[in-house]
Amino acid sequence: MSFLALSNIQKSFGSNRVVHNFDMEIEKGEFVSFLGPSGCGKTTVLRMIAGFENPSAGTITIAGRNQNDLKPNQRNIGMVFQAYALFPNMNVFDNVAFGLKIAGLAKAEIQTRVMEMLKLIKLGHLAERYPYQMSGGQQQRVALARALAPKPQVLLLDEPLSALDAKIRVSLREEIRLIQQTLGITTVFVTHDQEEALSISDRIVVMNAGRADQIGTPFEIYNRPATRFVASFVGTLNVLAATVVDPAAGTVTIGDQTITLRESIATMAKGDHLHLALRPEAGSLAEGARGDTALVGAVTSSHFLGSVIRTRLDVAGTVISFDTFNDPNTKPPAVGDHVTLRFAANDLLIIRD
Amino acid sequence: MKTNKILAWFVVAFGATYFIVPLLATFEFSLRMRRGEYSFDAYATVFSDVSFRESFSYSIAMAIATIAFGTLLVVPTAYWVRLRLPQMRPVVEFITLMPLVIPAIVLVFGYLRLYNSSSMIPFTGTTRGTDLLFLFALMTLSLPYTYRSIDASMRAIDVATLTEAAQSLGASWTTILFKCIFPNVISGVLSGAFITFAIVIGEFTIPSLLNRPAFGPYLQLIGANRAYEPPALAMIAFAMTWLSMGAIQLLSRFTISAPAKP
User: Which one, of A18, A44, A17, lies nearest residue A158 by Cα?
Assistant: First the structure.
């Protein structure tokens, strides 16, 4: 049985339904990210788990206990906010000790636990500092320690890295993941940054317009997107329009070029139109490159980016982009060259809307 | 450049003169009670007057009560409006502005009509009841200033997120209000308190019509009948105001007013 279960959750604000029939089961100790664009409902679902919003329908259970009727301060859920939300009138020690004092722990116990938490986030030497005396990254680590101190059953992270600069963001996300794994705490992380979600999650829920479009591991989400939205939102994707030639054999045409798909299109009819997607890193322009499928196109641009060369090709009127590793012995293609792009038919995805 | 600097200093000097000369003149006049020499006789007379001590202590007690109850009324109200009823903010702001447009005399006549000894709520039937009515009137008069200063302090902190952070850590509404919100709006409370203090000490109309022994009516009585004591009283009131301002400044040094970085 799952540890955190969201069953048929719905949420409406007036006549506007922002979450539709959301189902999700999260195992104990799992790190799950809600990924999606602004306004897709990911934060609303998180706030319903925290108890700050009540679901219009559906149930939320943690360790088998229905949470719907519990107030936020009765749920024992730790939460970290984008804006840190440290209490400005309290120093680091008092901020981390806040939840422990509320829980009525003894003074000695609070002292031990707070120092334990500060050691975990490597800020033991800043216990006397006030929030305004610290950097954004330090404040967010204190916020994390504060949320973890009362030993919550679930940790919720609401875009905790969005307000930080790029370098801190990368180091802190790794730190968050390490702490989560060390403590084995069930964690739900909300982000609109696909790289963040892909790098630290056990599973990702890609949300679109209040619905979970796909739930899967980062590998599955990136390599086998279930919908056109997931494919376009996670990573960069080249989309090619194709026409079915022989459904049984799986052959389609892109412009005047014919290729054979690995995925079955037997249910489609001859002349049907479909969209095919190819990741930029899936193809190669090198002579003798591996790949059972090829497309010919004209180079429209070629950018040398150091370790990578980004080439844009015009294939049957559609410009597609490809990244290949820099080879010091091979010159990048020039604009106007006609080149052959080779890739595995397996990498070609049929996009379902 | 040099001309501009001289002009700037001239403006500053003119402004300072405008405030300082009358003050010095009042002070100088208050020292002339003894014929032919300067003395503090007027101050001695004022301090030895039982009515001064009684009226001044009464007004100070009323000022402290007004600040305490006013804060207890305004902080939760401003907090709740910011947190749950943001759409009501213009309405609340309008209500809190009413004491500025309704003269105190109109207010007190309204009170006397509604709460006289033969009414349903006979506040003026007893001394304590009248004191309570006076307290409510003072709270109403100070509302435009206290609400605005406290609301401005709340704007500087993210009330909603701080509340949610405290809730997720298990805090009740009382704990949130007194441990997480109130300490962070203390600078606003203190600013409001200073203005309230000044209003209460100088208030004449309401205590006069409610027949309460406040400092304002005493000041008026002395001013109408004596020559040297009124300037001495003015100087004492002025000193008290500056002392209270200093005390507020001192208190605010002990508060952490800098908000967390967003």
Answer: A44
Q: What top-level class would CATH report for the domain A4-227?
A: alpha beta
Put simply, whether B254 touches A (Cβ < 8 Å) is no
Nearest to A88 among B169, B175, B258 (CB): B258
Tokens of A253: 């045409």
Query: Cα–Cα distance between B170 and A146 in angstroms, integer?
Result: 12
What confidence category does residue A78 fall into, taking pLDDT thresholds of 50, 70 and 90? Answer: very high
CB of A306 within 8 A of CB of A326?
yes
**So what's the ipTM on this one?**
0.84
Instruction: Tell me the C-alpha distance between B118 and A154, whole Å.
Output: 62
Distance from CA of B193 to the nearest CA of A (A): 20
Out of B165, B172, B255, whose CB is closest to A85? B165
The shortest C-alpha distance from A139 to chain B (Å) reads: 9
- As a whole number, mean pLDDT of residues B74-101 equals 94
Q: pLDDT grade, residue B88 (50/70/90)?
A: very high
Comparing CA positions, the residue from A275, A284, A292 lying closest to residue A313 is A284
Contact A103 B157 (CB under 8 A): no
Mean pLDDT of chain A: 92
Of A50, A103, A139, the CB nearest to B168: A50
The backbone torsions φ and ψ at residue A274, rounded to the nearest 5 degrees and listed phi first, read: -150, 165
Check CB contact under 8 Å for B167 and A71.
yes
Do A103 and B175 lie within an 8 Å CB cutoff?
no
CATH classification code of A238-351? 2.40.50.100
Judged against a pLDDT cut of 80, whether residue A34 lies above it is answered with yes
β-pairing verdict for A186-191 and A154-158 = parallel
Q: Going edge to edge, which strands form the sheet with A308-315?
A: A318-325, A308-315, A293-304, A338-343
Q: Is B260 on the interface with A (CB under 8 A)?
A: yes
Domain ranges of chain A: 4-227, 238-351
CB contact under 8 A, A84 and B157: no
Cβ–Cβ under 8 Å, residues A139 and A86? yes
Classify domain B47-253 at the CATH class level. mainly alpha
pLDDT of residue B82: 94
CA distance B180 to chain A (A): 6
| Model confidence pTM above 0.90 | no
